[in-house]
Amino acid sequence: MPELPEVEALKDFLTEHLVGHEVVRVLPVAISVLKTYDPPVGAFEGGKVTAVHRHGKFLDIEADTGLRFVTHLARAGWLQWRDRLPDGPPRPGKGPLALRVALEDGAGFDLTEAGTQKRLAVYVVRDPQQVPGVARLGPDPLADDFDEARLAALLAQERRQLKGALRDQSLIAGVGNAYSDEILHAAKMSPFKLAASLTPEENRRLYEAMRTTLTDAVARSRGLAAGRLKAEKKSGLRVHGRTGEPCPVCGDTIREVSFSDSSLQYCPTCQTAGKPLADRRMSRLLK
After folding, report:
1. Distance in Å from the first CA to the final CA of the chain
2. What are the DSSP E strand ranges found in 29-120?
3. Residues 6+ apart with CB under 8 A from 192
4. Rounded Cα–Cα distance for residues 246 and 169 (Å)
5. In Å, how far are 7, 78, 145, 208 from 96, measured between CA atoms?
6. 59 CB contacts (<8 Å, ≥6 apart)?
């Protein structure tokens, strides 16, 4: 799933490639992608793009008509830029193509989604706050006003484990499964530690790990073409998706805890005093 760094990079890429251009066609291929119907998706046609914004993991393309094209790529979605779109309209079928946006100069982008769950979402609205997922977002962890005190206040009443708290978009916007693993590894904290139990020193470590991890990931992604962002994300991860590999900090073997629809990775030496975490489906959680 694209998270804050990749969506921030896509925002920069689209700002460079879309602003000043007219949208001449918005062609849905999978009807499931459309989450709003008034105004219709075709109303976005004819507008000139004036800006591209990011809200957590949402991309928001603004036109001079006052309309906004907002999309969430979900777990298996992606944006594929094309300097020259194929001639003729796309054909509905069983492929990954969900929606195509064409510009007046022949360029444009495709929104694609692999798999069968079909969670990729597109909204055409007058205000991004009309998108429920945007309206309930928590603060952006890279915002200038997001400081240690704000993080401490957010976590103070959270009777959940850190892993779940960091992934909650209504608490902190933009962090998902991969970067929550990376942040907790950098902070040397167990993913099962209770969020409300942090000491001031632990809160400082978590804050610094969050800002550094996300800022570094944004820096690595910035300036890359949209098609290279997935590979860049994977190459920059230290523990997530690296079960069985040596920890780059201490050399211990990275371990995994599996859930029904996801998994987390961690280093026992760096994060849990050498103790392996129990699978939450089979035994009590270890802190």
Report:
1. 27
2. 49-55, 58-63, 68-72, 77-82, 97-103, 108-113
3. 161, 162, 163, 277, 285, 286, 287
4. 31
5. 20, 10, 39, 38
6. 7, 10, 11, 14, 52, 53, 70, 71, 72, 73, 79
User: Which two three-digit tokens encode residue 112?
Assistant: 């694609």
User: HSE (CB half, 13 Å, CA atoms) of 70?
Assistant: 25
CA distance 182 to 179: 5
List the 108-113 sheet strands across, edge first: 23-28, 97-103, 108-113, 77-82
Distance CA 17, CA 107 (A): 9
Per-residue pLDDT of the chain (287 residues; tens, 9 = 90+): 789 999 999 999 999 999 999 999 999 999 899 999 999 999 999 999 999 999 999 999 999 999 999 999 998 899 999 999 998 888 877 789 999 999 999 999 999 998 778 899 999 999 999 999 999 999 999 999 999 999 999 999 999 999 999 999 999 999 999 999 999 999 999 999 999 999 999 999 999 999 999 999 999 888 777 777 777 888 889 999 999 999 999 999 999 999 877 899 999 999 999 999 986 554 444 44
Which pTM value belongs to this model? 0.92
